[in-house]
Specification:
By secondary structure, the chain is of the alpha/beta class. Helices cover about 35% and strands about 30% of the residues. The longest helix has 20 residues, at about 110-125.
């Protein structure tokens, strides 16, 4: 007798991220069937009642009812996988092996390991004829997760740093991982974003981007230029307390103005 297919529901308030996760899961687990996609926790609960999926992928941070709140109501009824863009949250908040999670952007090898674990857990649950962990046990794990996430958020002086940038490339809307960005350069109206795979224009000015990016990864070197510290090859001092900044494997030379030259005093 052919076993029933494993069915999944994906919840994320970003349509592009929902689609991206679905494509990655289809490659790693071709037999997996998707019953629906939800934008928030309330939609998750409504769609769950309609399709009763085996697995629910829940984005931790969603407007209205978030993934944690939805998980409390689904505990024991389906296998839950939390999806987060903040790896430090996953490392601090999840008991090892107790709750499954996926970090965005999805890493292929890590996803394969998660899928292998999910396959095993779904099979074990079916062999036990639906005997999942008792709901109080799962609820306590979810409550612990919520407390740890709250502590992690409270310890931050500001909102989590930007992880993605939306940009139009021709007729396509691109989601650019901030970790891949090399530098950004503004003129009066637009900011050019250059990353590993290309470049695009956005309307967000440098002064706003500075406040949204992790200062441990990005540094402003000119009133119109932001650069990733990982992309810097070397800096050549110039006349009048200025400098030229060179990138690894790139032809562009970026200006360093007098106001930011102190960042490179050690050279």
């Amino acid at each position: 007798m052919t076993p029933a297919p494993v069915r999944a529901l994906i919840a994320d308030d970003e349509p592009l991220l929902r689609d991206s996760l679905a494509r990655a899961l289809q490659q790693a687990w071709p037999e997996l069937e998707f019953t629906a996609q939800a934008r928030n926790g309330r939609e998750v609960l409504a769609l769950f009642e309609e399709s009763r999926p085996d697995i629910v992928f829940l984005d931790v941070h969603m407007p209205g009812m978030n993934g944690i709140e939805a998980a409390r109501q689904l505990a024991g009824r389906s296998h839950l996988v939390f999806v987060t863009a903040y790896e430090q949250y996953a490392l601090q908040a999840f008991e090892e092996g107790a709750l499954d999670y996926i970090v965005k952007p999805v890493d292929e090898r890590r996803l394969e390991a998660t899928v292998a674990r999910l396959r095993q857990r779904v099979q074990e649950r079916r062999q036990a004829q639906g005997g999942a962990q008792p709901q109080p046990v799962l609820t306590e794990m979810i409550d612990q997760l919520a407390r740890r996430l709250q502590l992690a958020s409270a310890s931050a002086d500001r909102a989590p740093y930007l992880q993605w940038i939306r940009a139009s490339v021709g007729s396509t809307l691109k989601l650019i991982p901030v970790a891949q960005i090399l530098f950004m350069r503004s003129d009066e109206k637009y900011t050019l974003v250059v990353w590993d795979e290309g470049e695009a224009l956005i309307r967000t000015p440098i002064r706003e981007l500075v406040e949204q990016l992790d200062p441990q990864c990005f540094v402003q070197v000119h009133r119109s230029v932001l650069v990733s510290l990982h992309a810097i090859s070397h800096v050549n001092r110039g006349p009048n307390e200025t400098a030229d900044l060179h990138l690894r494997g790139r032809p562009e030379v970026l200006p360093v103005s007098r106001s930011y030259l102190h960042l490179f005093r050690q050279m």
